[in-house]
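ok so i was messing around last nite and threw this chain in just to see what happens. nothing serious, just curious
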Amino acid sequence: MKISSKGGGHRADAGHRKRRECALKKESSKMISVETEGRAVPTLPVWKRVTLGRHKDAAGYLAALRAGGNSVSEYAKDIIVNMSIAPVETPVDLVLVAVRAMISPNGATSVQIYAWAEERGLESCPAEVGPALREHYRDQPAGEVIRVGMEPTDSDNYARVLFVHRGSFIEGRKRWLSTPGAFHDPNHRLGRRNECLMVLVRPNK
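result:
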């Protein structure tokens, strides 16, 4: 998603993103270590809890998103229509990962991110996390972009993943569920130039 560089609203949005990155770095420094194959590996705090299965079909999700004032791209609609939906209401704990701050300042590929996450007991998200998080996360800061850590889903012959984001001040601060970036490339280094935020699931033990 392209962010405009003009206007005081944008400066405020950029300032909020900077504060969020600093907060994530501080949070990562407080992690509790657990043993994994003889090595101390920090656990990650739960960021948000969403409930899957609140809507029984794609039409229900799309209607709820529209009613909440959210925008959904055409490719994101394709993913919603074809995704699996939990048969009963199921709470899911999400962890927010900042790739540059918590994994590598040079960014990491999705394969590297998932290997890092697995060591910390995290799992990829079902696609349903995307619309569930978009519906739940009404106070998302302007300019924030969060990638759903999910298996890519075929849409229009491209492998795509969902993004939960909110436009900048210049863009009207609209809340979006979309698939920016055209398609998923497993060899692309996420966070190479700018911070990349990703949500993953912490399983309920």
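not much to say yet. The longest helix spans residues 8-29.
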